[in-house]
Protein 1
Amino acid sequence: MSDQEHEGQGGAANEIGESRRDFLKGGLAVGAGLVTTAALGCRDGTTTASDSAPAAAHAEVSENKTHVPPGKLDDYYGFWSGGQSGEIRILGIPSMRELKRIPVFNRDAATGWGAEDFSKQLLGGRSSGDTHHVHLSYTDGTYDGRYVFVNDKASARLARVRCDTMAVDAIVDIPNSQGTHGIFPQRHKTGLVLCNAEFRTPPNNDGRDMEDPSKYGAMHTAIDGETMEVKWQVLVESNMDLAATDYTGKYSFATCYNSEGGVNLEGMMAADRDHLYVFNLAAIEKAVADGETIQVGDSSVPVVDARGEDGPYVLRVPVPKSPHGVNIDPTGRYAMVCGKLSPTVSVVDIEKLDAAFAGQITPRDTVVAEPEVGLGPLHTCFDGRGNAYTSIFIDSVVTKWNIEKAIQAFNDETINPILQKLDVHYQVGHTNASMSETKDADGKWLIALCKFSKDRFLNVGPLHAENDQLIDISGDVMELVHDGPAYPEPHDAVIVRRDLIHPVKMTPRNGASFEFYERIAAEDGVDMRQENKVVRVGPNKVRVYMVSVAPVFGIPEFKVKTGDEVQLIVTNLDAVEDLSHGICVSKHDVNFLVNPQDTKGMTFTAGSPGVYWYYCPWFCHALHLEMRGRMIVEA
Ligand code: K7E
Ligand code: CUA
C-alpha cells in the first residue's frame, strides 16, 4: 500500500483499527471458551501490517510526556527481561530509550559474554536461555540497589547481576527442577530468592517413573540471595507458575494452573478450580533444621515433601481456573491472583493466612474479593493510592480497579470497583508500574508489555517487534503516551527510581570475575596490572598477559605454536570514564570487551602458521585503528 493510499483511507483508519480489535477479541474469546490450541496463541494470521491503515488513534495519544530533552536524564531505570534473547535490558523511563543490554544466559558478540573465560565457566557451555522475570533485591520493603535476579526457564537457572557494574556475577543451576519460571526475592531484606518449577517431573528424574505422571512433582526452591547457594526445596504435587513474597518474610506464593497434573492441554484445563500455593517459610525452615527432609536425586539440597494435603508447610487457596500472575499490593496486605481463563482477580487477605494454616477457617475463606476485570487477566500492579491495574490479554486492555471497592463489592453487587479500561495494542502480557513491587509504589508510570504489535510499526517481516507501551497513571485517568518496539520477547519489567541505583564508572577490582582471573595470574606469579608477559604453562599451553592503555597494547607482538591452547588475558589500565578497550584476534573467533580497570580473558587454539593481527575493536582514541599487534603462529 502506498503512502497515498494510506492517506486516502485516513478517515477510515480508526474504524478499521477498531474492527480489527473486535475481530481479535471475538476470536480469542471464543477460543478461550472452547479451549482450542489457538485460544491463547492468537496467531490468527488473517491480519497483517500491510492490510490495514495505521491504527494509532492519535486523538487518544498524548505527545511529549515522554520527551526527555537531549542531555537530560530519565527519572527511572527500567529493568526488562529479554525472554528468548536470554538477556536483561535497561531502559530509561519515561523516554523508553534503551540504555544497555546485559548478557546473561546468551552468547553476546559485542562483549564476548559466553566465550570470555569467566562467563563461559558460569554458563557451563550453554549459550541460550529464556529470561522471564527480573526482580531487584530488597531491604525493608523497597529496592536496596544491590542486585538484580533473573530466571532462566530453559535450563532452570537463577542469575544475579551486580547493580554497581551491571554485570552478572553468579549463575546457579537449580537441582531437581525444570521450567524455572516465577521467581521472587524476599522483601524484608536481601534474603531468599524463591523459584518455581513450572514443569512437573519425576522427583528422581533418572529414568524412574517416566510413564506415570501421577508420581511427578515440582519444586519451590529457596536460594540465598547473598551467597547464591540453594538452601532448600519444597516438593509439591502440581505445577507452579508465577511467584511472589510477602513483605515480612513469612510467606511465599506460587500460582498453580495445573492442579490436575495433566500432561496435555485438555488435562491441564480440566478442573474449574486450581489454586494458589502459600508456603509457610518458618515451618519449612524448621523442618529443614530438624532434618525432616527427603533425599532427591543426587543433590545434597534438603527437600521437604509437601505433596498431597494442606499441612504446616503449604496451603492451597482455591481460585478459578488456571491462574497466572500473583502480585502483592504495596501495603503488603493482599495477594492478587489473576484468573487467566477466568475473568476475575482473586484477592487473598494475607492477614487471614495464619488462621487458615491453623485450620480455624478454610483456605477459600482468605479470598475477600473477586472482581471481574475482563477476559484473560494475567498480571496486576499498583499505584500506591489503593488502585490496582490488571493486564487483560484477550481483551487487549489494562483494567484499573479499586481494591477497597472490590472488597465491598464481594458482598454487595451494586458496587462497581472497575474504574477504567484502556485499550493497549495488542495482547498484553505483563504490566508493571513505577516502584509497584515495593512499599514505595508512586503511581507515575505504567508499562504494558504487549506480545503483538501487528500494525503499530513499519512491517519488518514475519517476526514483528513486540510493543512495550508506556501509560501515564499519575492522574485519575490512564493515558497511553508511548509505543516502544522491543526485540522479542521481554516478559516482565520493573521500574525503579533512579536515586536507588548507583552504578560505578570504573570496574571495581573485586568480586567473582576479578577473583577468577586473579587465581589464574597467581598460579603464574604474574601481577596483571604491571606485567606484560607470555608464559608457557605446558607443552601446548600458553598464557599471554597484557595491559591496554589507549592507544597501545602492552605487547606489540607475541609468538605461539600451531595447536597451542592460548589464554589471552587483558587488563585495561585506563581509568577514564567510558574508555573501554577490547581485543579481537583475526581469524580466531576471539573478541571481547575490557572495561576501564577491568581484566578479561579468552582461551582459543592457535591456527595454522602465519601472522595474525590482533586489534582493539572499541573506538577508544584518535589512534584507535593503530591499537593493534601481531600474533605470530609458528609451525
Ligand atoms: Cu511472567 Cu510471560 Cu513468563 Cu506472564 S509470564 S505474560
Ligand atoms: Cu582501544 Cu580502540
Note: The mean pLDDT is 92.
Protein 2
Amino acid sequence: MKSAIFDTDIGIDDAMALLFAHYAEDISLRAITTKYGNASIEDTTRNALLVKEMFGLDAPVYRGASEPISIRLGEGYPSHVHGKNGLGDIQFDEPQLQAETWTAAQALVEISKEAGQKISIIAVGGLTNIAAAIALDPTFSSRVGELIVMGGAFGYNQHRGNVSPVAEANIASDPLAADIVFSSSIPTTIVGLDVTQEVTMDSLFIQSLADNAGQAGQFIKKTNKHYFDFYHTINGKHECPLHDSCAVAYLLNPDLFTTIHQPVRVVTEGIALGQTIHGNGLRTYETDAWDNGARCTICTQVNAPAVLALYQSTLALAGLN
Ligand code: RIB
Ligand code: CA
C-alpha cells in the first residue's frame, strides 16, 4: 500500500487522476495539496474540495502556492483548455468543506514526519509546493520515498512542448522550482509529454467510464466535454492526452513504462524558459551543469493500451458503490 500525497493544479485531467488514485486499492491518499496552474489557487482549491465532497475522499485538502517562486512562462490561466473554473465550466454547488489551516508546504513536511513510512508524492501541476517544502525543512527530502512528476518533455516520440515549442505547462509554471527539485536528493520519476501524449482517450473511452464508473464516470464525461472541444480545435481529432493519470499509473505499475536515468536541469530564463534537458553521461566536459550528482528516472516509452485499461478497471470500482 502506497501512502501518497496528491499535489495538483486541479483541472480536468487532474480530477481524473485524483479519482484514479482514490479508487486504486494500492494507494492510500494522505493529503491533497493544491497550487495555481490550470486555474487560480482559489479555483483549484475549491475544485479539490468539490471532488473530495462529491466522492467521499478522506484526504484533507491543503491550499498551496498562488504564484511561482521566481518567474513563469506566460500569465493568467488556460481557461481555453480547462474552462474558467478549471473543471470544464460545469455547473456545481460550492462545496461546504474547507481547506485545512496548514499550507501545502507545511502539510508536506508534517505529514511526511508522521507517515510512519516514506511517502509517495504524485505531483501533477508543477513543483512550487515541493520546492517550498524543501526550503521549509531541509530534512524533508529524506522522508520522500518517491516523487512522481507529470511534467517536462525530452523529445522522445517527438514530444517537446505544449506551451512553447520546448516547454511543458507544469514545468513552465515554475521553472526554478522544478530545477531545484530535480537537482535535489528526492528520488524523482518524470512522466513527461514523451509518454503522456502517447496515452490518448477518445469518446468511446469516456462513454465507457460514463456507463461503468457510476457518478465518477458521469462527472468525468461532463468535465471532459470542454477538454475534447479544445483538443479538437488544435488537432482536429476527438481525442485527448490522459496526462496526469499517467503519473498515477506509474505509481501503480512502473513496468508499463520504459525509463532511463539521467540528471535533469531546467532552463530558468530566456526563449527556452521551462525546457527540461537531461544529461547524457557519455563523457566528462570542461563545464557540465548536469554534473550535480542527482539523477532522475525519465519515462521514454509507455504501454498506452495497458494504462488506459488500468484506468478503466480501477474506475469500474467506482461503479460498484
Ligand atoms: O502539460 C500537461 C499538464 O498541464 C497537466 O498536468 C495538465 O493538468 C496541466 O496542468
Ligand atoms: Ca495538472
Note: The first helix runs from residue 12 to 23.
Protein 3
Amino acid sequence: MRLVMKFGGVSVADGAKFRKVGSIVQRYVSRGDQVAVVTSAMHSVTNTLTDAATQASRKKRDYVKKAADDLAERHRKAAEDSIEDKEIRARTLESLSATCEDLKNVLLGIAHIGELTPRSRDYVLGFGERLSAPLLASVLEDLGLKARAFTGGEVGIVTDDDYGSAQPLMNVTTLQVRQALEPLMEDGVTPVISGFIAQTQEGIQTTMGRGGSDFTASIVGASIRCDEVWVWKDVDGLMTANPKLVKNAKFIDSISFAEAMELAHFGAEVIHPKALECAARYQLPFRVKSIADPDRQGSSIVSEAKVKDGDVVKAITNINDVDLITVSGASMVGTPRLPAKVLQILTDEAIDVLMISQSSSEESITLAIPKEGGSKAQNALELSLLGSKQVREVSMEAGLSIVAVVGAGMRGTPGVAARVFTTMAREGINIRAIAQGSSELNISFIIKRKDTERAVQALHDDFKLGG
Ligand code: ASP
Ligand code: MG
C-alpha cells in the first residue's frame, strides 16, 4: 500500500517517543508499504515559539535567548536518546544545533528592532517542524531505512501569503509534491515532511494555521494518490463519547467525513477540519490508528458513512465551559441585517462562535461562545448595538455546556429530536438553546455545565451506543 502517516506533537514528545514512531514506520516499510511521513513539532514547541516571538517583539532579549537555548537542549536530548549510530547521531546533532542557532539569531533580530510582522512570526513558528522532521528522518536511518527530510516548501507545498493561515494552491502543489516524492518513494526512500509549514510562490515560509500538520498530511496524500492517510494517536480511535465521561463508550469503526467534521466542531477534534475538507474533496480515506496498539484497525473516515438500520446516532460529544449571549429586542423583527452585524462584530473581535440560534419570532439571537470570550463579546455587542434602537438588551449567562448528538442516520429520520429532548426531560435537565444544522447531521443544545455528564451518559444509553 501507499500510505501517508502523520504523527502529532504528543507522539514525538521525547527521544523514546521518536524511537517508537520510528519503529512503527519501519514495521510498514519492511512489510513492503511505501510510506510518506508527516510530523508535527515536538509537543508544546510551537507554543514556546509563539511565546518567544511575542517576547522578542517586546525586546526581551534574555527571555528569547533562554527560550532558544532550552529548545536546543530539548532537541539535543531527544536526538541522543533516539539515535544509536555514532555517525548519524553526530551529524544530526550538528544540524539541529545549526538550526537552533538560526532560530536564536532570528529571535534576537526581532528583539533588536522590536517588530514582529506576520511574515517573521510564521518564520519563527515553523522552527518546531524544521527541527522535528530531520530528527525523525535520522531515527529512521538509524533503524536501517533510507529516509530524507523535507520542509513543506521543499516538497512543493505552495500557498498564498495569508501568513498564519495560509491556503495551499492545490493545482501546483499536488503536481510539485507528486514530482518530488513519487520517484523517491518508488526508489525505496521514506520522505519525512514537516507538517504545518509551506511557502509562497516567492519562496517565503508560511504556516497553515495551528494544528495544520493534519492538513499537510491531506495535501501530501492527495498529491501522491495514496491509498490511505493514517493519523497516529495516543488514543485507540474515535469513540462514541468521551470515555472520561461515559464508562461504556465504544470505538467507532467507520464514520463519514461530514460526521467527523461535526465531531471536530464539537470539541472532539481528532483531525483538523481543514484536513477533513481536503480529504473529502480528493476522496482520500483517513484512518485513526493507535500508537499503543498498531494491530488494531482503528477508525476509518470515508466519503460515505455506512448507516446500519437503527444506527441513527454515531456519537455524543460535548464542549464544556461556554457562555451564552442573547441579543434581544422587539424591533429586531424583520431586520435581516442584524444577525450579520452581530456576527461581524464578533469576527472583528476574533471571538469564536460555537453555535447560533434565532427564535422564529426573530425577537432574539442566542450565541454560544467559549468561556474566555463571553464578557468580551458582551462588551463589544453592547458598545456597537445598544444605541441602535433595534436592540434592547445583550445578556450573558455563564457556566454552560454544549452537547451535540451526531450521526448521518439522523438525516430524514423523524423523531430523533423528540427522543433527545424526551431523554433530557426525563433526567430533569433544562435546555437553554437548541440548534440543528440543515445537514441534519447533528442536533446541539445548551445545558448547565453541571448537568453535562448526566446528559451525555443518558443519551449514550438511550441511543444504545455503549459496548
Ligand atoms: N505544530 C503545529 C501546532 O502546534 C502544527 C501541528 O501540530 O499540527 O499547531
Ligand atoms: Mg493536532
Note: Residues 8, 211, 214 surround magnesium ion (ligand 2) (CB under 6 Å).
